[in-house]
Structure formats: C-alpha cells, structure tokens
Amino acid sequence: MRIGRVVKVKADMKERYKQLHAKPWAEVTKAIHDCNIKNFSIYLKGELLFSYFEYIGDNYAQDMKALDELTKDWLKETDQCQEPVEGALEGELWSVMEEVFYQE
C-alpha cells in the first residue's frame, strides 16, 4: 500500500521542523520500521509538506495506532509545527492524497 499525505508547515516553525528531521529520534525510526512502514520520505515545498511511504503489513489501522502511541512524544514536537491544509477532514492534520498515477 502506497500512501501520500500533505500538511502545511507554519512559516515560523519551518526551521524547527527541518532541524527535528535532520536528527530524528532513534525510537521514532525504530517505531516506523516496527510498524511495517518502508520508503518513508517527507518533502518540503514552500509551506507544504508532502510525505510518502509504503505500508507492507496486514493490519494498517492497528499498526498506525501503535505508531501513534510509540511516537507520541515526537508528535508533540512535530505537530506544533504543522496545520491542516484547506479541505482537511475534521480532526485531520495530515490529509491523505488520492493516488492518480503509479508506474513500477
């Protein structure tokens, strides 16, 4: 399963966000791996952050719940740097994007 998501980075928090990801916490990178996520990338363009990852497990909802729990302290740091994009669902920070093309 391939997932693309988008969120806005707050202008005054852009450098903080980049600093956090320049040296991610070891427990965060371990949790990402342990929750069946591969090829995880985050890109920045202006005020938009785009993330892409591949999920290789068999229970996405369960693994994402576990990931949120394992990374809750990290998310306290990164979430304050972000705000939802226009059209985000209620309570949604990162908005899942529709895949419109794929070629292997």
From TrEMBL:
**Keyword annotations from UniProtKB, A to Z:** Isomerase
SUPFAM superfamilies this protein is in? Dimeric alpha+beta barrel
Q: Where are the transmembrane segments?
A: none
**Do you know which Gene3D superfamilies this protein is assigned to?**
3.30.70.100
Which Gene Ontology MF annotations are present?
L-rhamnose mutarotase activity
Which Pfam families does this chain map to?
Answer: rhaM
Q: What is its EC number?
A: 5.1.3.32
Which InterPro entries does the protein's record reference?
Dimeric_a/b-barrel (IPR011008), Rham/fucose_mutarotase (IPR008000)
Extract the PANTHER family matched here.
L-RHAMNOSE MUTAROTASE (PTHR34389:SF2)
Instruction: Please give the name of this protein.
Output: L-rhamnose mutarotase
